[in-house]
Amino acid sequence: MWEYLVDRRGLIAFQAFQHVSLVVQCVLLATVIAIGLAVLAYRSPRLTGLANGLSAIGLTIPSFALLGILLAPFGFGITPAVLAVTFYAALPILRNAVVGLAGVDRSLVESARGIGMSRLSTLWRIELPLAWPVILAGIRVSTQMVMGIAAIAAYVLGPGLGSFIFSGLSRLGGANALNATLVGTIAIVLLALVLDVVLVLVGRLTTSRGIRV
User: Fold this and answer.
1) What is each CA distance from 3 to 6, 157, 183, in whole angstroms?
2) Is the dihedral of CA 194, 204, 22, 144 positive or negative?
3) What digits encode the pLDDT tens for the residues 14-29?
């Protein structure tokens, strides 16, 4: 195993960078999309139920199946990988964003509107900051989940560490097959832990002390 790591350290580092880059960019895109949808839905019980239902249904779709469906219009490569990872990343964030925004004390919102704040200003300065811890919890769950889904994206020749896993599984019993599978799996777990620590630090920096207390 040590020789395998040393001989391929450059490739492992490059694939790890690609994996993290794919996940981070897709999670950022999914966060923008999910919060935008939540802002449109959280004031309506019907739309809130629809958003929660779509989140639940979306998570039941097997990632292999979705990637296979995306192959037809987009072919192999980065596009189906990005679409699939972003889709799954948005689901937990959407649910938490709706719950977080709907859970903001309405008396605070009415007080803000009473002193002349616009609806947009109230959303930006009152509701989103108060809902942020719940939204961030969804982002953390989403990030951990799509770290694994990004590995499956290697099925459509997407970037990342999944290529080590698929390569090892395709030639089990052969030379270095187990090493390739273990390297890909362990590296993904370690990177997921690192990203979670980063998100915890982001939460401490972006959440006001009063809300944390």
Assistant:
1) 5, 26, 12
2) positive
3) 999 999 999 999 999 9
